[in-house]
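Next up, sample data.

:::
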Amino acid sequence: MQITFENIFIHSHVVAENHLYKHFHFPEMLSRYDSNYIEFKAFTSLDEFKQAESYLREYHQRNGQKHVKFKFPVDENIPAELVNYLNQENYDIGFLELYAIEPSQFPKVKNHPEIEVQIVTEKNLRDFLSLQYQQDIVFGSNFANQKVELNKRIFQDPTIMQLLAFYKGTPAGAVDVIISKDTAEIDNLGVDEAFQKKGIGSRIQKFVMDTFQDKTVILVADGQDTPKEMYKRQNYQYLGYQYYTQKVEE
């Protein structure tokens, strides 16, 4: 099957749509930038962008949100005029990359007696939430607390499997696996800084590959971050990119 960004799950709701864009809003977690934004269907004139910008800013201000974020058409570069405007207005510009792999193509990973990957259940949910909180607190207590509530809702969702990795019995890494008919999406993969470079991330992924051998495993990586180099080494196939821009306004 052909994998595109349309296959990527979004924790959000479309609250408005026109010929130019879709507006995604997630009242369950207003501080999550990746869930509250506008996605353009095509590049617009600068005036049309400014109109969308004003609309989103006013919408977010009414909800107590201090950011604005925009995603742009897949596999297209941002026009120079718009880049100049975004730079002048102190926006951050980045891009995402889409990857996919057939589980049989994932490199062999040796078993490690000190690393154990478990499906999250009532028994280990508290450990999972605690580890996620430790990773999210760097974004502020408000974000971290809202993320705990989101993770509790995800735990109740039968289409999402949460995994927790232990190193010598200590919670060390976690991931969400979003399950659809044809794909298993790796989302929010993270390893505690104290346990990195021990092969935990690879073993979490291997657990996903073994569990979903009949599906294509997909993920989105930050185009400016180092994990994408790991995915390339692990035989993931690069499928495309998408630019975004965001700005936090006090």
Notes: The longest strand covers residues 237-248.
